[in-house]
Structure formats: structure tokens, C-alpha cells
Amino acid sequence: MLSDTVVYRVPLTTRFRGLDWRDGVLVRGPAGWAEFSPFWDYDDDAARAWWRAAREWAEGDVPRRRGSVPVNVTVPAVGPEEAHRIVASSGCTTAKVKVAERGQAPEEDVERVAAVRDALGPGGRVRVDANAAWDADTAVARIRALDRAAGGLEYVEQPCREVADLVAVRRRVDVPIAADEAVRLAADPTAAVRAGACDVVVLKVQPLGGVRACLELAERVGVPVVVSSALETSVGLAQGLALAAALPELPYACGLATARLLAEDVVAEPLLPVGGRLAVRRPDPDPARLARAADAAAAAGITERWLARLRAVTKEDS
Predict the structure, then answer these.
(1) Sequence-ordered list of residues with C-beta below 8 angstroms from that of 318, at least 6 positions apart, any chain
(2) Is 96 one of the annotated active-site residues of the chain?
């Protein structure tokens, strides 16, 4: 049974996915606090998976195989100087670079990736995420240019939206392909793998319905997986961290160091990496910070909208 429900709104350090703020709902259950924060472009049917994840986390925990998890630094679509600073100050040896931002030129992506490589040095790993922005021919050209700028890419995440395009791109480039949207937005999350569209599957715990659902999917897909966040607060990140800690194998640094993208968090000690790793823990909201985030939601006029959304996706629970 859930005992508390709080709508939050926190600012981001820089625009990310077209957002300047992150908002959602925090709920408290027998096992602690959990997060429900589907983006607004998800309809109620899709948002129900996010609710299943929140309910699972509020009601229980999962066994863990490791006490810390390697993570990558995430680089938004910023200029090369800022990209270099973000990576150099992160302590991480792997970087995920956002590319294909609307309104930016391809040369800006190349400059950003080159700056990230310079900051990491020759031993670091660079991956890029296009968020399904390209068609197949564009993807091939851009991937080759970015691979040169990086001195070798670890993988490119979701270069195209359609599975058929991913298959075509994978055949034409030497860089491994990771599937994100093609997994979490699909009616059958294994379809992309079975079609030969990807070498790696990205697991996001909220969109895929929770830790146990992700563990089952990881076993079914039969290719390496990497855990990434959905830009949650540290309350929600803790669930993704628990997933990464529970996986039998963890061949890639995880995209869970995204609390750095929040200008404010709802916990006193956010989940921030030390030496490129996150310690596995479950922080509770700090009352003062949670109150500020709730006040920000109320001031923005989104509190009732979120509560109505929560009611819509929890009808099946009543």
C-alpha cells in the first residue's frame, strides 16, 4: 500500500531532449520511495509500464551481484569546449555523446565527439546516441564521420527509428548498433534482436516495467545489454542501479550518472559517480528538497495534471 504521493519538478543544468525541467511523481510504499515519471509523449497505455516499475520498487527490492556499477558520463548537445569540460571533470572513462540535435549541423556533432575523445584520451570509450533521428543513408554517412572523429566508437545508439533501417545500417558500417527506442517502444521488445538490427540492447527500467521485467528481457534477447536512465531523480535512478547490480554480466558502463544533469535533486546526497563508478544504494528524499520540488510543480500548474495521469494508469490496481 502506498502511503505518500508527491508531484515534483526540478530544473536541468542544460537543455536535454528539448527539456529544461524534469517532472513526475514520487510515491512511498513498504520498501521505500519510488518514481513514476513517463515523458509527456507517452500515452496512458505506454505509461502503465512506468507505473508497474514504480509499484515494484515501492513494494520491494532485488538481490544484487555487485556493490558498485561502472557508469558513463553523458554529454548533451553542447559546444566542444563545454563537452570537454564535462568529460574531464567527470572521472569517467566512457562517454555517451548526444548527436543529431534538431537545429544543429553535422559538423557540430563531429567537433563535440572530437573534443570528448581529447578529454578521455586514447584509452577511453566513446559512444553516441542519435535518438532515432536519421534515415539509413544519413546514418551511414554520419556514423562513419563520427567514428573517425572518435578514433573508434564503442557503439552508436538508435541511429534510425525503423527496425528495417537499423538492419540496413548495421550491414553497412563497422560500428556496433545499440537499440533503445526499438526495444522499449516495441510491442515485442525482442523483435529488433531477432531481425538482426542490433548488437546491444539498452535497458531502461521504468519504460520496460521494472527490474524483474528487465532481467527477464536480458535473458531472452541473447545479446549484451547496457542499463541507462530515463533522466530520473536519484530516487528513480536507484532502481536502474539495482537492475545493473542484479544482471549476471555487465560488459558496458551504464548510463546512470545522469543526476549530474539535474540542477537540483530531491535527495541530500544524489547518486553521483566516484572514479567512474556508482555505489549501489537507495537514497530517500530529503524533506526540504522534496518540498521545494513540490512547490515548483504547484507553481508550474502541473500537480493536478500528474495526479490525474497517475489515476488513469492505476485504475487496474483498484
Answers:
(1) none
(2) no
Q: What is the CATH number of domain 4-61+286-315?
A: 3.30.390.10
Domains 4-61+286-315 and 68-279 share a fold: no
Nearest to 204 by CA among 231, 229, 179: 229
51: exposed, middle or buried (Cβ count in 10 Å: 0-12, 13-18, 19+): buried
**98 catalytic per annotation:** yes
For residue 204, what are the β-bridge partners? 228
- Where in the chain are the domains? 4-61+286-315, 68-279
Of 130, 119, 66, 131, nearest to 280 by C-alpha is 66
Model pLDDT for residues 243-297, shown as the tens digit of each residue = 999 999 999 999 999 999 999 999 999 999 999 999 999 999 999 999 999 999 9
pTM of the model: 0.96
Q: Are 276 and 268 in contact (CB under 8 A)?
A: no
178 vs 170: CA distance, rounded Å:
10
pLDDT of residue 6 exceeding 90, the answer is yes
Give the integer Cα–Cα distance in Å for 119 and 204. 27
How far apart CA 192 and CA 163 sit, in angstroms, is 6
Per-residue pLDDT reduced to its tens digit, 106-120: 999 999 999 999 999
Residue with cell 522534496: 290
Of 52, 84, 204, 289, the catalytic one is 204
Catalytic residue among 22, 28, 55, 98: 98
What is the CATH architecture of 68-279?
Answer: Alpha-Beta Barrel (3.20)
Residue 8 in grid coordinates: 515534483
